[in-house]
Amino acid sequence: MALADDIRLLSQVPLFSDMDGDQLRLIAFGAERRTVAHGQALFREHSPAECAFVVASGRFQLSTLGRDGHMQVEKEVGSGALLSELALITMVERKYTAVALQDSDVLKVTRTLFHRLLEEYPRAAQILQARIRDNLVRMAQAAAAMESRFQ
């Protein structure tokens, strides 16, 4: 796929959608494209997350290990999905096991690359800060709405 196609894909990912062409170009140029065969795991639940992945094509099933020891499907994602977004900021564990439902392509975005973006483009850091703040507000509102269930 051409660099222009990767830039277009990244511009459709909510985390990157407000970034300008230079910022997107930096990410697209530094990202590594990977092909994942049907049935192959991209990553496993609880493994260290050192990068995020943008689904360029194909579909992935995201599953967790249930209390009964069986994998439970949480959701399916396709083109434009960003997997392990928090790994761009800090070291975390994967929340899911991601398995390709068909031959798929992903862009691997490393934490180092993302930190470079934030250092070179302070405006990108401001966008990220606003998104994190908005997400925390929504989470707090959702938790407050469920408060009566826990009393």
TrEMBL record:
Protein's recorded name: Cyclic nucleotide-binding domain-containing protein
PROSITE patterns on file: CNMP_BINDING_3
CDD domains: CAP_ED
Listed GO CC annotations: cytosol
PANTHER family on file: CRP FAMILY TRANSCRIPTIONAL REGULATORY PROTEIN, DNA-BINDING TRANSCRIPTIONAL DUAL REGULATOR CRP
Single GO term (MF): DNA-binding transcription factor activity
Cyclic nucleotide-binding domain sequence ranges: 15-118
Organism from which the protein derives: Endobacterium cereale
InterPro entries in the record: cNMP-bd_dom, cNMP-bd_dom_sf, Env_Response_Regulators, RmlC-like_jellyroll
Superkingdom of source: Bacteria
Any matching Pfam family: cNMP_binding
